[in-house]
Each structure stands twice: as C-alpha cells, then as structure tokens.
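Problem: given the chain below (31 residues), write out its structure.
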Amino acid sequence: MTNPIKQHGAFSWNELMTTDVNAAKTFYGEL
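Solution.
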C-alpha cells in the first residue's frame, strides 16, 4: 500500500492513534 489516501477528503480509518498507550488502555477498558 504505497498511498492509502488517494485524494484530499477521501475516507480514511485509523483504529487508534495515541501517544499514551496506557491511558488509552485504561480509557477504553472502562467503556
């Protein structure tokens, strides 16, 4: 996959982007 986003405004999905993995685990674990 050389360029996953083909044009400006194209739909893109990110599972999770965070710089604090432990905080994300805590937050999503409590949902």
